[in-house]
């Protein structure tokens, strides 16, 4: 749900990074947080367990410029990827305006990626949203491991598994190294804000 | 299933919200008041505290409500409409109104919890008529 405050000419929209556990959602946010200017990016909040797994969500507020004289504030969240935390994922998805799905390129995660995307579709449906209509991009993370001996899925395989029907933009990325992170964020932000403006455009006439 | 809708508030709405918050809560001694929605959007803030992490406060408050709603279900309730956290010097009172909004009041130990509860209740009745339209007041409790 986007919130538009016309007294301050400001739009707030909600982006969620979704995907399997240990796929790199939090690492995406950490990279953005560490590399962006503090004028653009607020304080990152993370609620994790003792290890490195997200318990509830991570949250990062961003101010990303203006459109139609409205300042854009984007609230970026991650969900916990582990299967058992589905109730939490549903809570975080509430009022979502756009989704970046972070898929893990490790071959052993192939089935989990597919299941996580199905789980996203089901949880969006629970919110009255259709995965084929909501602003969505895919990120194929951990591509930096191509040069290692770890078996990875090819981009073609990932496209076949995840994007055959959706046909949304995808980005090869390494959240640890930082490549593909901004491309993903830029595209999903652009699509989300465009979608919000289209939906509320008529009501913005003053 | 409840579909969350986009919301647009204009300057007169915001001015009216601010007037109610000032009159009912800040004049009663509260330090700072926020109105947020259950998805974590900060709708407005008023008060004397300078907080850089106001977005985080809004988001975590919404998450706090969502988490305690799950506790409520375990004991046969739909959710809890009121939460209170007591600190050494400053305390925080959360009250949900309607299905979508939360009013968050920060106050120090010079102000009693009872007063904040009464004043929040009054503020909510008036805020509802703005955030839920003219019928909001009559629909309270929503």
Quick overview:
The complex is a heterodimer of chains A (206) and B (142). Chain A has 206 residues and is an alpha/beta fold. Helices cover 31% and strands 27% of the residues of chain A.
Oligomer: heterodimer
Using the coordinates shown, work out and report the CATH topology of chain B: Beta-Lactamase
CATH class category of chain B: Alpha Beta
Quick one: how many beta strands of chain B?
Answer: 6
Distance between the termini of chain A: 21 Å
List the domain count of chain A as a whole number.
1
Question: What's the tally of helices of chain A?
Answer: 5
Q: What can be said about the biggest beta sheet of chain A? A: 8 strands, mixed
What's the average pLDDT of chain A?
A: 91
- Shape call of chain A: globular
Order of helix and strand elements from N to C terminus of chain A = EEHEEEHEHEHEH
Strand order of the largest sheet of chain B: 3-2-6-5-4
CATH architecture of chain A: 3-Layer(aba) Sandwich
CATH class descriptor name of chain A:
Alpha Beta
> For this structure, what is the CATH homologous superfamily of chain B?
Dynein light chain 2a, cytoplasmic
Give the biggest beta sheet of chain B: 5 strands, antiparallel
Largest interface: A-B, 33 and 32 residues
Q: Which CATH architecture of chain B would you pick?
A: 2-Layer Sandwich
């Amino acid at each position: 749900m986007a919130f538009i405050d016309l007294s301050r000419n400001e739009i707030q929209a909600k982006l969620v990074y979704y995907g399997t556990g240990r796929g790199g959602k939090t690492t995406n946010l950490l990279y953005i947080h560490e590399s962006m200017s503090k004028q653009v990016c607020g304080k990152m909040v993370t609620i994790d367990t003792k290890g490195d797994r997200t318990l509830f969500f991570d949250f990062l507020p961003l101010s990303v410029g203006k459109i139609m004289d409205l300042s854009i504030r984007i609230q970026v969240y991650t969900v916990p990827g582990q299967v058992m935390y589905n109730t939490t994922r549903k809570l975080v998805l509430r009022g979502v305006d756009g989704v970046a799905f972070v898929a893990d390129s490790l071959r052993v995660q192939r089935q989990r990626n597919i299941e996580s995307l199905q789980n996203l579709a089901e949880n969006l449906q629970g919110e009255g949203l259709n995965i084929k209509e909501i602003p969505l991009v895919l990120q194929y993370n951990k591509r930096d491991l191509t040069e290692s001996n770890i078996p990875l899925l090819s981009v073609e395989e990932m496209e076949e598994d995840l994007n055959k029907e959706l046909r949304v933009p995808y980005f090869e990325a390494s959240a640890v190294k930082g490549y593909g992170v901004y491309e993903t964020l830029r595209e999903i932000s652009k699509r989300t804000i465009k979608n919000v403006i289209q939906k509320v455009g008529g009501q913005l006439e003053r | 299933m409840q579909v969350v809708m986009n919301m647009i508030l204009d300057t007169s709405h915001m001015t009216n919200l601010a007037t109610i918050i000032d009159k009912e809560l800040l004049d009663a001694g509260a330090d700072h008041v926020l109105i947020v929605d259950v998805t974590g959007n900060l709708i407005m803030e008023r008060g004397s505290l300078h907080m850089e992490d106001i977005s985080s406060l809004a988001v975590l408050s919404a998450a706090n409500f969502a988490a305690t709603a799950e506790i409520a279900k375990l004991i046969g309730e739909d959710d809890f409409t009121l939460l209170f956290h007591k600190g050494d010097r400053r305390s925080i009172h959360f009250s949900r109104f309607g299905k979508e909004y939360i009013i968050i009041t920060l106050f120090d130990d010079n102000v009693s919890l009872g007063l904040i509860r009464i004043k929040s209740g009054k503020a909510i009745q008036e805020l509802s008529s703005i955030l839920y339209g003219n019928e909001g007041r009559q629909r309270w409790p929503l």
